[in-house]
Amino acid sequence: MSFVPLNDVLADALAGGYGVPAFNIVNDLSAEAVLEAAAEERSPVILQTSVKTVRMYGRKKLYTILAGLAEDASVPVVLHLDHCPEREVISDCLQGGWTSVLFDAHELDGAENLRQTIEVVAEARAVGASVEGEIEGIQGVEDGIGSDEASAMQSLEVSVDFVERTGVDCFAPAIGNAHGQYRSAPVLDHQKVSDLLAATGVPMALHGGTGLSAEQFQDLVARGCAKVNISTALKEVFLRSSLASLQRSEESGKWDPITFFRDQKEAVTTMARDHMRIFGSVGRVR
């Protein structure tokens, strides 16, 4: 199965009241684990790549790896470029097979963000891809992009105008969420999601998901967050499982790379499966 556009899976999710999990994979093994969980749970899934990961592998090589893993997928798979402020990287990935991009231009002034996002949407449409947009920065640094300083909040009217004039397929609002681990329980503006959906009809994307409770996830999904990002949780289970596996090798004196890889994969698969169940995406693919 080839990669599908983001709007293909979000339309069904919004209508069905569930969230499609979007995992920021870090290598081939983590991608394989996410795809395995999606197949087992019959869930659509979004493979997200950061600009950092694209540069680490090189766009062409990364696409070849991920397309090969997804080739036999029995569920819809989106290939998404996460938080990218650089137009040349956006263009390269769109031409290279990505079916969705997040053009992160929140640091530009409103008029320039609007102008360039309209251009990105046209560029994506030309290759059958989707675009996620944002005008408020999500607090926190992720893969070298972002800031720990809170971004200026925009009014509902400004956000709605941006969505309508750009034609983005998905919108990422700032609702008190943050990338990374929360230092304290976040106070989220759940109503903002409801208001944006009611005014635009466009699916919302929830960023900064790691650390939210199942109840928070489910309420936000019910309000219109049809795309739910998970990045920090994947990285943490990947590295913590690696550490535990290495410690077991040290204690036993048995250094088996295959066991090491298996431990990493099992941890990521379990994490992905757990989130799919919370988001209600299990069993949505027949």
Explain the overall architecture.
- α2 (28-41) crosses α11 (257-279), α3 crosses α4 (59-70) and α10 (232-252) packs antiparallel against α11 (257-279).
- The protein has helices at residues 6-16, 28-41, 51-57, 59-70, 87-95, 110-126, 156-166, 190-200, 214-223, 232-252, 257-279, and strands at residues 20-24, 45-49, 77-84, 100-104, 130-134, 140-142, 145-147, 170-171, 204-206, 225-230.
- It is 51% helix and 16% strand.
- It is α/β, with parallel strands linked by helices and 286 residues long.
- The two termini are 15 Å apart.
- The strands form 2 sheets. It has an 8-stranded parallel sheet. A two-stranded antiparallel ribbon has the order 6-7.
- The protein has one domain (6-279): Aldolase class I (TIM Barrel, Alpha-Beta Barrel), CATH 3.20.20.
- The longest helix is centred in the C-terminal third of the chain and has 23 residues, at 257-279.
- The chain contains 11 helices and 10 strands.
- This is Class II fructose-1,6-bisphosphate aldolase.
- Its cofactor is Zn(2+).
- Pfam families: F_bP_aldolase.
